[in-house]
Amino acid sequence: MRKLAAVILDMDGLMFDTGRLAYEAYLLSAKRYDYQMTPDVYYDLTGRTHPAILEKMKQLYGEDQPIEKWRKTMIEEKENLLQKQQRVYTKKGLRTLLDYAKAQDIKVIVASSNLNSQIERYLALENITTYIDDIVSGEEVTHGKPDPEIFLRALAKSGVSKEEAIVFEDSIVGITAANRAQLRSILIPDDLTDLPTYQGKVAVDTTKFEQKKAQPTFEFADLAQATAFMQQQFV
């Protein structure tokens, strides 16, 4: 198998345990405005740019709902939680993966739908900025995931071929984007099924959930398992 020269990493829910932070903020917003919130809703929203999240929320809850107000409150609650914690917490195996990449001279590109300032903030909070070779944020793309643009930009910044790169994702929309970019992918699901739900008066239209389940090239329980696999497979 061809030598691995670049890893392209999603951020929220993949590198950091921010999925739980975001979901808690969504719950607080849902309770304030009395709309339904479940992990399945979060899974359908995660990985998208802010405008794409608003559009998807309109599909799920209805065009006539005050989606912008709900989302604004969620963002404010998330920031309140972050200010209290001052941590985003690395996911299991992240440092193992980053140490492996550095030792093997593999480039590390972060490709996140988040704002560039937020990406840099999270990297600094967990002291891993020096591991990262480059960043592609949601501000740099016209079309968010599941469009492949963000991963194609990350690939261009890495300067390697498609055959020498692999995408790490925790969301189905991210895997769909990687597939459309014709890049190999590793899925590390961000399991939030243990978290509570809120059954508000404004119910979710479950028929609007993403129906097509994209298939990753590989799937592992955590980043440590994925790193062990790469050590064995990529020469």
Task: Report the span from N to C terminus.
Answer: 6 Å
| Helix content estimate | 40-55%
Mean pLDDT: 94
Instruction: Count all strands and give the number.
Output: 6
Low-confidence stretches: none
Structural class: alpha/beta
The helix count comes to 9
Largest sheet: 6 strands, parallel
Q: What fraction of residues sit in β-strands? A: 5-15%
Major β-sheet strand ordering: 3-2-1-4-5-6
Protein architecture, described:
By secondary structure, this protein is of the alpha/beta class. Helix content is 44%, strand content 10%. It is built from nine helices and six strands. The protein has helices spanning 18-33, 39-45, 50-61, 67-85, 94-103, 116-125, 149-158, 172-180, 223-233; strands at 6-9, 107-111, 134-136, 165-169, 184-187, 218-219. A six-stranded parallel beta sheet has the order 3-2-1-4-5-6. Helix 6 (116-125) links the parallel strand 2 and strand 3. Helix 1 (18-33) crosses helix 4 (67-85) and helix 5 runs parallel beside helix 9 (223-233). The chain is globular. The chain starts with 5 loop residues before the first strand and ends with a helix.
List keywords for this structure.
235 residues; 6-stranded parallel beta sheet; alpha/beta
